[in-house]
Specification:
By secondary structure, this protein is α/β, with parallel strands linked by helices. The protein is built from eleven helices and 13 strands. A seven-stranded parallel beta sheet has the order 3-2-1-4-5-6-11, with helices on both faces. It has a two-stranded parallel ribbon with strand order 7-10. It has a two-stranded parallel ribbon with strand order 8-13. The structure holds NADP nicotinamide-adenine-dinucleotide phosphate and guanosine-5'-diphosphate-alpha-D-mannose. The site of guanosine-5'-diphosphate-alpha-D-mannose has 23 residues, from α4 and α7.
Length: 342
Amino acid sequence: MPKRAMITGITGQDGSFLAELLLQKGYEVFGVIRRSSSFNTGRIDHLYQDRHEPGTRLRMLYGDLNDSSSLNKILRQVEPDEIYNLGAQSHVRVSFDIPEYTAEVTGLGTVRLLEAIRDVGIRPRFYQASSSELYGKAVQTPQTEKTPFNPRSPYACAKAYAYYITVNYRESYGLFACNGILFNHESERRGETFVTRKITRAATRIKCGLLKKLYLGNLDARRDWGHAADYVEAMWLMMQAEIPDDYVIATGESHSVREFLDAAFGYLKLDWREHVEIDPHYFRPAEVDLLRGDADKARRVLRWKPKVDFEGLVRRMVDHDIKLAEQERAVAQHRKPIEIAA
Ligand code: NAP
Ligand code: GDD
């Protein structure tokens, strides 16, 4: 019998890479998706094309982390061996605008899912998508599993609750539950409002003559950026370990937003200083200045290490986005003026 995995947040960046990985490993994958008025499955459509074929191993079920009854129903129906809780309102800047909603989904959503596991009476392994944002105004660099948390946003506060409730269910009920404390990870599937993808989308559009200016916030913030495909592998490894535990997943290198601009625009032979303007709208009420992780424990225990480095990450994203920009340019050039009937 193939193992069954359930993924919340399957339509997101990480969910799509994780679904791909688990299908390759022979799992049956059940994704929880939200009803949306527009299509939200673009990142997984390539995995889902044969959904009408007998024997398809990827299924989608409607549910929401804000809706306990849907979580109960799905768990009863699927009885998964592994649950990956990746669903979240995951944008830090936006969490300042919608703090209560962020707490509901990103914080309480986790306990809803954990309680549904107890209600249904199953014993799956549980992965919680914890975040380096927990370190916030970091009291020590590099950050390890032992570094105290110091959250700086409603998002990070919600993730702190989710982190501790996951530990609590492990200790109280003996659930195989682990936290992956993942540092920033990006890809060609990254949401376009996160800074790396915002930069690679804009730089490639500028290169193709489709855009003139890119508006950004704080260029001095430093992040430890890896590639999402490497990071979902770490999630899976954590779930195969003998003992449930919490792990930092990071590259160990940090770069500023300015350095990301240098790398992306430089690769396209452009000078970002001619195209970037600062818009205070993108400043945050409280900023996280420096994140750099030490993944020594994951290296030792899980034998995990990242394959894609900073330069490789930037190039992959730019190579992907230049093709999108070229397609956009071709469409724009062939678009006929609309004729309005008199
Ligand atoms: P993402 O691209 O923003 O995806 C978030 C996913 O959560 C989407 O599938 C979204 O569905 C879903 N979602 C949102 N609200 C939900 C709700 N109420 N109920 C059920 N699902 C809901 O995020 P990501 O980058 O893949 O990150 C995955 C997880 O890792 C998140 O929990 C994030 O906070 C955490 N994390 C990310 C990073 C990183 O650098 N990427 C680092 C550390 C931790 P829709 O498509 O319908 O919006
Ligand atoms: N989004 C965005 N947009 N960020 C900007 C901009 C801009 O125009 N200009 C500068 N920045 C700076 C932000 O102030 C922040 O310091 C940094 O770029 C990174 O911002 P994001 O890419 O939005 O990511 P994040 O670090 O806040 O959060 C991401 O990583 C966390 C892990 O540390 C998200 O994926 C979170 O879900 C994740 O937990």
